[in-house]
């Protein structure tokens, strides 16, 4: 389905559909033919395709696509906890809940609407949620697909309780790569990180770029607002831009852990890399009535054009 940019109507570029379990989904498209697919189960983006139809996000072939089990792949929303650093289930409960379409969200600004499609989702706590995390909140998520194919996720957490609460938040982004041995990350040099393979001990990154030869499970702290993931095999670079997300979580399970996960193929670690915009080290605290916003923008560009593009992004130009 293609639309003329001259008569672009973002509403016509939004398709409401269902998966094979009957779960509601939303498909976004832009005039060039790029697309993104979002499930109301977890508010999870699990497909992002460029205008050539190439899938840019990884989803495991052994993923269990049936609620309440979360799909292994795409971009799960980890809230109000990341990992097992707390009393809640791994990565919190937001990714396993059924979200609703938010019909009361503001429209796109006229200067920002050309060729863009978006959907707004909303999560409020159930009585069950309040038993394990006793705070009332509203979590709003806008997923938008730009005319140039960029995928943006904007989350807003509002405290509608009578007391303060604190939370962690992560866009747990599974990127599709040609081969993990052909990938490096730029933008994390000299940063401190917490190593989850060593009881969250703190280290400092020493290399010029992060490459992969074994399992990695780290949270890089006070990171820049733009980083690049270079995939030499596909001559493609992912650029991650973010705001309100000071940390970056990086994960690849490698061979041994892959074989121990029921919803992950033994060799699939070679084809994926998680690089997450996150708030982990210093959780966000909201007083009653306060709101936090976290923005993640994903771009996929040819590596030949990336150096100048990435340099401009890092300088905020």
From TrEMBL:
Catalyses which reaction(s): alpha-D-glucose 6-phosphate = beta-D-glucose 6-phosphate
InterPro entries per record: Aldose_1/G6P_1-epimerase, G6P_1-epimerase, Gal_mutarotase_sf_dom, GH-type_carb-bd
Enzyme class: isomerase
Signal peptide range: none
Pfam families named among the record's database cross-references: Aldose_epim
One of the record's GO molecular function terms: glucose-6-phosphate 1-epimerase activity
Protein known as: glucose-6-phosphate 1-epimerase
Annotated source species: Populus deltoides
